Amino acid sequence: MTTPSPLPGHPHIAYRDDALCIESLPLADLAREHGTPLYVYSKASMLSALAAYQRGFAGRKVQICYAMKANSSLAVLQLFAQKGCGFDIVSGGELQRVLAAGGDPRKIIFSGVGKTRAEMREALATGIGCFNVESESELDVLSEVAVAMGTRAPISIRVNPNVDPKTHPYISTGLKGNKFGVAHERTLQAYQHAASLPGLQVVGIDFHIGSQITDDTPYLDATDRLLDLVQAIEGAGIPLHHLDFGGGLGINYNGDTPPEADALWAKLLAKLDARGYGDRQFMIEPGRSLVGNAGVCLTEVLYVKPGEQKNFCIVDAAMNDLPRPAMYQAFHAIVPLQAGGNAAAQEQIYDVVGPVCESGDWIGRDRALAVQPGDQLAVLSAGAYCSAMGSNYNTRARPAEVLVDGSASHLIRSRETVTDLFRCEQLVKA
Ligand code: LLP
Predict the structure, then answer these.
(1) What's domain 111-286's architecture?
(2) Which protein residue has the closest C-alpha to ligand 1 atom 9?
(3) 382, CA 20 to 30 Å: which among 28, 271, 280, 306?
(4) What is the CATH number of domain 5-42+292-421?
(5) Does residue 271 contact residue 220 with C-beta atoms inside 8 Å?
(6) Which are the catalytic amino acids?
């Protein structure tokens, strides 16, 4: 048997004897057993990503709140809950998922610009740890809701620090033109207002500047700006129990070189120590960096279609399963399950596309592949923002999901059936 060499950025995905494996299992076996498209996740990969954060914070007071929007499958939440994580949620639906997965309500923080009164009530009744409030009007509404329930809502205000995370415009959130957070210049006033409201209890401050950040400078700049505010807010007599640095750390999709979580935190903690804040309670909200490179989406080649300008490789996964290329022109590596591809096929440059009736339904452009119909491919880096952002467009049932742990595999989501899709619909009675 040849020594397996993991794919770059994917420590638990490697060719063994020419068969692409996740942990100890050949992906082709899982495709045979469960069909395609199929999402497959590595438990070891999720745990080692989490361990990098835990190492980075060793000896500090920290609560890691997994940003579950990245991948909200119950078994994934269960895994992080068992390891002591809390959760960053953005809807009442996500709250119910955390509870169904056995998460601790006190370790939940509730982010998002548009919380409804009903969601606020539900979260207060559950006893969540903190509301990350994103506007001054939200402070008023939350206070009103809490007073009506005879309680006080623990809050943090999300500051928009106006730093450029240098990422795709759709996933940068901490610039002045973004809808997120309270402007840096208004933050002190907003805290004074919060402290005066009867239904609120100020507990912290937070920022989240964007996603898929591959450079540590924006974090360091935003931290400096946050600490200036902490000084001003506490100087005005409003103590802050915790400091929350959001999420956003990127992963390697296409030769990207983001810092490791522990290296990033060594730098940030040095700054916090230097400014005298190193012994505070910290919170972080990582999503993609915990799950992104733990997952692949397996797909089968249906047709190869040579063209005058382009060759198309038509596969059974589509933009409804892997929406990131269509939404952000995102790059996902696509590799054959058999090393080198199909020996009987000639390598060609293909656009890899799905069956959905949209020209935007592409998964990869200009990829060199040696494939024939019936071959299987793995779309890499599919653990974050793929299944969770999936849809049923073209009445396509969502794929199944499998969690691999060493040489064991667990079906964690069954493939949807078409009748599941129209379960809530009814014909008009004649
Ligand atoms: N905290 C807050 C308040 C957030 O808005 C987000 C992500 C996170 C934490 C987690 O960020 P992460 O560590 O995953 O970067 N669908 C896009 C990404 C959208 C991110 C939205 N907010 C994509 O596929 O690239």
Answers:
(1) Alpha-Beta Barrel (3.20)
(2) 247
(3) 306
(4) 2.40.37.10
(5) yes
(6) 357
